Amino acid sequence: MAAWIQLGTLSLLLVIAYRPLGDYMAWALDSPRTLRIERLVYRLAGVRPDVEQRWSGYAISVLAFSAVSVVVLYLLQRVQPSLPLSLGFPGVEPSQAFNTAASFTSNTNWQSYAGETTMGHLVQMAGLAVQNFVSAAVGIAVAVALIRGFTRTKSETIGNFWADLVRATVRVLLPIACIAAIVLLSQGAVQNFNEPREVATVQGASQSIPGGPVASQESIKELGTNGGGFYNANSAHPFENPNPVTNLLEIFLLLVIPFALTGTFGKMVGNRRQGYALAAVMASLWLGSVLLTWAFEAQPNPQVEAVAGATVEGGNMEGKEMRFGVPVSAAWAASTTGTSTGAVISSHDSMTPFGGGVVLVNMMLSEVSPGGVGSGLYGLLVLAVLAVFIAGLMVGRTPEYLGKKIEPTDMKLVSLYILLVPAMVLVLTGIAVVLDAAVTSIFNPGPHGLSEVLYAFTSGANNNGSAFGGLSANTTFFNTAIGLAMLIGRFGSIVLVLGLAGSLARKQQVPETSGTFPTTSPLFVGLVIGVIVIVAALTYFPALSLGPLVEGLS
Amino acid sequence: MRVRSREVSSMGDVVFVAVTLVAFVALVLLVRGVDRL
């Protein structure tokens, strides 16, 4: 009963926030007014926010900004011992520093390190937390650029990246993250510059209690769908997530912007029902995966029962926090994998084979349930274009979406977008299971071992960042391979999305006729969900059948 | 920021900064490829 109340409260909060936040973001991201602080940033950076960019200029700005971010974050980790507040930690080893830099810049936040024993406070704050903000802002900027592709007519330009980046950071992410950090603080999340403190436990052992600016990083970690924990235990750590109230707040934060951006979309295209249709797709997939994960995790582990020789009550509790339990852990696991966050409160490696399969599939649906900040919306729009195209093929009409004719160029970009990430996931997983240097990292034999590797590359290339565990990923091979998967998965997709935005912006609006496929109807919602599930199934079924499916059935 | 030369001149640093730059140059080439579509 308590679980249903929590799930109901969460859903209610999301519904309440949907329209105000969506409308606010529509204003904030497209208003010509410039705030004083923004003017200062523009002057310091030498940016003219009113100068419009073509899609290619926009894309190269995204790439240049992100390339510089990777290099700066890399160097910060390497020179850590010379920095203040380093807590005496050595410089991060090169391949791990590359992996972490690629990870935080691409909004993935895959971590092959343990925060409290690797990163000093300055690198956490000036390196990782900064990327938590700006990588999320890049996602929002690209989503807004794609919306402009739909709203503009015969336009060569899709906005200004630098202005979108600054607005998303200053007007959306910073204010909400500040308020959320204060709420987390009030509930007991820590916020200090303390060094680890050695204390004697009741049993006489010695324990190290780490400090750090945690609350401020925790709020943007969830809000920006980043997921990189200050501590290795991530959101299961009581300093990051002290009680049920903070748990509800954190799960709300990681879902709120991806859902509300569909409202922003509806507002900007001048038809709210277009936004509601996309929100319905996201909500159906999200709720479905929450309930499925819950159902699978509510089953006891048959192997534990066999060893214990008795029935086990309370479902599969291995790897779960006692204070959260099965339903809340399942809701979190489904939400964190559906939003490309990757923060965890339970061990996904310890889930039942089918429960773990659901969270894996969640990422394979190309992160649209509801997806990352910005990336969820643009990913879903790409799939909506595909759905409209398929509907057009069925009735033999030129497909159109929001008054834009979908033509061969657009479909080539959509196809490349859909192929890019799976190609990387499957090829790299294939390489990893035959290469000696990689195979030695896999702790579990058989199908579970394959699931672990498949999960790692799926998580990296889809920019999720959660880990299945059971894989020693801090090796030169995995650091480099997953690092490249994250960069290409994120920025390759962004280039294709911006190309689509440019192509759409150049087109004329065609008036709606009786033959136009209505994209606000339940039929459209069902069609998009069908397309998403079928594309993922066709792409990944062979790999899934060798991993979680065979494990669950044996 | 005081940077000790030993820490930023190791071979690993050169390799991984180069990997980063190659990845991004490949992506810039993708921009040009998409423009031709």
Describe the protein's architecture and organization.
The complex is a heterodimer of chains A (554) and B (37). Chain A contains 19 helices and 4 strands. Chain A is mostly helical and 554 residues long. In chain A, strand 3 and strand 4 (404-405) form a beta hairpin. Chain A starts with a helix and ends with a helix. The model of chain A has no long low-confidence stretch (mean pLDDT 95). Chain B has helices at 5-8, 11-36. The relative contact order of chain B is 0.10. The model of chain B has no long low-confidence stretch (mean pLDDT 83). Classes of the chains: A mainly alpha (554), B mainly alpha (37). At the A-B interface, helix 3, helix 4, helix 15 and helix 18 of A face helix 2 of B.
Number of strands of chain A: 4
What gap, in angstroms, lies between the N and C termini of chain A? 33 Å
Classification by helices and strands of chain B: mainly alpha
Average pLDDT level of chain B: 83
Identify the notable features of this structure and list them briefly:
heterodimer; A: 554 residues; mainly alpha; two-stranded antiparallel sheet; two-stranded antiparallel ribbon; 19 helices; 65% helix; globular; B: 37 residues; 0% strand; rod-shaped
